[in-house]
Amino acid sequence: MLMRFNVMQIVRLVGMVLAIAGIIYALEFMEGGIAVWFWVALLGVGFVGLLYTFRLTQRRLAAEERARERAEKRSGKRSRRKNRR
Question: What predicted TM-score, i.e. pTM, was given to this entire model?
Answer without folding.
Answer: 0.57
